[in-house]
């Protein structure tokens, strides 16, 4: 990206600024993502997008209870399978 190019503009209102739709789409910014701001020595601002992590149990299908399990012998203290 060239520093001379203006990609989009937005207005500050109540100490908040909207991120233009074109920029959100280009950077894949979604609800829950965070922006990390860094003020450079030359007065410019660098913004890094921190994508929201998916939930810890997002891929967990659950346990149907069909097989007996002994948590003390089959898992370590953190619930990770013992190899």
Descriptive terms for the model:
83 residues, alpha+beta, two-stranded antiparallel sheet, 19% strand, SpoVT-AbrB_sf
The first-to-last residue Cα distance is 48 Å
> Mean pLDDT across all residues, rounded?
80
Sequence of secondary-structure elements: EEHEEH
Give the overall shape, derived from the CA principal axes: elongated
Percentage beta strand: 15-25%
With helices defined by DSSP (H or I, 4 residues minimum), what is the helix count? Answer: 2
Percent of residues in helices comes to 10-25%
Q: Main beta sheet, described?
A: 2 strands, antiparallel
Rg over alpha carbons: 23 Å
Question: What is the element layout, followed by pairings?
Answer:
Blueprint (H helix, E strand, L loop, with lengths): L11 E2 L2 E2 L3 H7 L6 E6 L5 E6 L20 H4 L9
Antiparallel strand pairs: 1-2, 3-4
Description of the molecule:
This protein is of the alpha+beta class and 83 residues long. Helix content is 13%, strand content 19%. It has helices at 21-27, 71-74; strands at residues 12-13, 16-17, 34-39, 45-50. The strands form two sheets. It has a two-stranded antiparallel sheet with strand order 1-2. Strands 3-4 form a two-stranded antiparallel sheet. A hairpin with a 5-residue loop joins strand 3 (34-39) and strand 4 (45-50). The protein is elongated. The relative contact order is 0.11.
């Amino acid at each position: 990206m060239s520093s001379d190019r203006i990609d989009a503009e937005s207005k500050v209102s109540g100490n908040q600024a909207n991120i233009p739709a074109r920029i959100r789409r280009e950077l894949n910014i979604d609800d829950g993502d965070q922006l990390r701001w860094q003020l450079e020595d030359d007065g410019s601002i660098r913004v890094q997008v921190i994508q929201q992590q998916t939930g810890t149990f997002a891929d967990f299908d659950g346990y149907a209870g069909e097989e007996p399990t002994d948590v003390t012998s089959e898992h370590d203290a953190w619930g990770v399978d013992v190899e």
